[in-house]
């Protein structure tokens, strides 16, 4: 999590308390980041974003980013898969940022799978909760071509995720709820690549995960801290220099 210290940042940080720790850990293991900048285009046009994307934005893309996500566009939050970052503006903050933040977090967690697998998930569109139908009717493409179907399914999962976290999971159909759980479980499994060892002399066993994924407890260590790990504002600066995962993903 990267950003300045100010009221907006503190407010955003509190919102992440709604998200299950396993989901945030999954993102962190993947190398995804949460960025808070004055404006969203500030991040998209930055040197760090260029590093993570592996290329700068073209002039056209910069203009478009400013037009679509800049100040006075009403953009509350975005997820940018090319830099694998959830971006939250601190200059203009939505009066009720909880839902937009959770919705975009839902995209961060599910978009890759939806992108690759939308044809197999398409049947879910036939039976959607009213709230999600209303969301889709609010301006998402309605056609039957691949891009339209993929966009709608991406929205279904992001919205379903936000609903679950806001305590509205009873409104989801069982099919949708179990598809969402499946995607989230897959994600945390894929990101876990533990290796094991067993010491032939002592029989002692150990499981290792990549060191950079370890979450360090704050505090001195003689008492267990029950709070979730601090996503420090400083973050792990190395992540800013790391290339984001490949986007778009290769098809399954
Ligand atoms: Zn969305």
Short description:
With 252 residues, this protein is mainly alpha-helical. The chain is built from ten helices and five strands. It is globular and about 65 Å long.
Q: How big a fraction of the residues is strand?
A: 5-15%
Spell out the helices and strands N to C.
Answer: HHEHHHEEHHHHEEH
What does the main sheet amount to? 3 strands, mixed
Distance between the termini: 30 Å
Residue stretches low in confidence (pLDDT < 50, at least 5 long) are 212-232
Shape estimate: globular
Keywords:
single chain, 252 residues, mainly alpha, three-stranded mixed sheet, two-stranded antiparallel sheet, 10 helices, binds zinc ion
Characterise the protein shown here:
- It is built from ten helices and five strands.
- Strands 1-3-2 form a three-stranded mixed β-sheet.
- Helices cover about 45% and strands about 10% of the residues.
- The relative contact order is 0.16.
- It has a domain at about 5-100 and about 105-125 and about 180-190 and about 230-240.
- The two termini are about 30 Å apart.
- With about 250 residues, it is mainly alpha-helical.
- Zinc ion binds near residues 103, 107 and 155.
């Amino acid at each position: 999590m990267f950003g300045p210290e100010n009221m907006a940042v503190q407010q955003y940080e509190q919102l992440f308390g709604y998200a299950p720790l396993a989901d945030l850990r999954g993102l962190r293991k993947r190398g995804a980041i949460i960025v808070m900048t004055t404006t969203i285009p500030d991040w998209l046009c930055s040197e760090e974003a260029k590093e993570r994307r592996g290329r700068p934005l073209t002039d056209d893309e910069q203009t478009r980013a400013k037009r679509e996500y800049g100040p006075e566009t009403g953009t509350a939050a975005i997820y940018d898969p090319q830099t694998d970052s959830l971006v939250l503006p601190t200059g203009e903050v939505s009066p009720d940022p909880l839902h937009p933040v959770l919705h975009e977090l839902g995209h961060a967690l599910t978009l890759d799978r939806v992108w690759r697998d939308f044809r197999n998930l398409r049947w879910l569109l036939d039976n959607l909760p009213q709230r999600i139908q209303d969301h889709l009717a609010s301006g998402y493409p309605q056609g039957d071509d691949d891009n339209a179907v993929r966009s709608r399914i991406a929205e279904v999962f992001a919205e379903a995720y936000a609903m679950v976290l806001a305590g509205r999971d009873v409104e989801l159909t069982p099919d949708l709820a179990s598809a969402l759980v499946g995607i989230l479980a897959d994600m945390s499994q894929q990101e876990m690549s533990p290796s094991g060892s067993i010491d032939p002399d002592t029989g002692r066993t150990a499981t290792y995960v990549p060191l950079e994924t370890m979450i360090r407890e704050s505090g001195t260590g003689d008492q267990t801290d029950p709070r979730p790990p601090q996503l420090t504002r400083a973050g792990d600066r190395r992540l800013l220099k790391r290339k984001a995962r490949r986007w778009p993903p290769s098809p399954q």
